[in-house]
From TrEMBL:
Residues 68-426 form the Alliinase C-terminal domain. The keyword Phosphoprotein does not apply. It comes from Paspalum notatum var. saurae. One of its GO terms (molecular function) is nucleic acid binding. This is Alliinase C-terminal domain-containing protein.
Amino acid sequence: MAGRESGAAVVRCAGRIGVVASVAMNLAWLAMYIRRRYFTARRSDGGAEADVVEAGKGKPPVTPDSVVNLDHGDPTMYEEFWRATGDCATIVIPGWQTMSYFSDLSGVCWFVEPGFEHQVRRLHRLVGNAMVDGYHLLVGTGSTQLFQAALYALSPAEDGSPINVVSPAPYYSSYPSVTNFLNSALYRWGGDANTFDGDTCIELVCSPNNPDGGIRKAVIKSKSSKAIHDFAYYWPQYTPITEAASHDIMLFTVSKCTGHAGTRLGWALVKDKEVAQKMIKFIELNTIGVSKDSQLRAAKIIKAVCDGYELSSYGDASRLFHFARHKMAARWNRLRLAVEASGIFTLPDELPGHCSFSNDTIISNPPFAWLRYKKDDVEDLEGFLREQKIITRGGTRFGVDGKVVRVSMVDTDEAFDVFVNRLVSLK
Ligand SMILES: *[C@@H]1O[C@H](CO)[C@@H](O)[C@H](O)[C@H]1NC(C)=O
């Protein structure tokens, strides 16, 4: 590829005063060259000390007049916690490390880093939200990849019509999009599980549920049907931990647990070896494994979370779930007051329960507010809020009506403040 060659030449030249941009060099490589020169300029000569690579800034800052985008559940709320923990979650990866494709040729999953697996199992034992003994642990590029791997693994092998994939409405808006995106011959979106009347299906059980925070069990009873449990939000900052779950396929993600959405790491606990092997096959063909760099980073982050609870040398400030629960509870209090003050919205009822992790009765603090408009003059609440420069996701995307929207509760303090203040002013 011509672009690649000219790019390599540019890298070799980086640091010299002038580089004549060849005609063949395209704009993408020019942009990369500028970025590299910037980083090269910042490096110390010895090269031995770790250089902190500057990351992209993410979304633009929020001001009282700006648009607040609470469409995605972007967990930037957690930055405050990780900024305060010093370097206990920092990693340095030398240039020669993590080069091989392979991580663990002795295990079931050849691309899972043993250190990552160890810390994930430790975390589940600490929190008590899922059984890990007797389960195969798979890693994926976010739980979204594992979700697709699970659909592949659970689809019947024999030729025939695609198996239906269902979930009770309101269901996570990505389920239909991801399921139907490639028009697979193996599976297709079958809609609301409550109205499904076929014999066999794959049911997606999301608990606490995205978007409405409800606690869910599988609703499909037929023996030939299979369930995938999406436990992205089954963590003590969002909901009381009431049992160590032990379903056939359980999906988790660092994104909603520690806030590291950009690390793109999820994991699956899978009971059946054959299903696990099919899921591994999918990931092999899809991305030839999962970034080791991300796994090492996630392992360090999860280790810091566990150490925060298990090592006495760590203070209260290093307790992630406590930090996040307090933050979520404070936000939910403010939101409920604002909704009451405005008089035109409703929210789901509070769900109390005994949490085995905190040994306390707590109320749930869902990661999304499922906000409903209760008057008759607006049918499209998403559009109505967009006029107020609040970006949310409308109910029709979740299989229900448009008078309800999903609003992220895990964004920055600034975005949340602006959102609540605007909401209070609506009558
Ligand atoms: C949980 O709390 C109760 C009541 O405060 C207490 O009696 C009990 O010992 C606690 N259990 C654990 C495991 O800490």
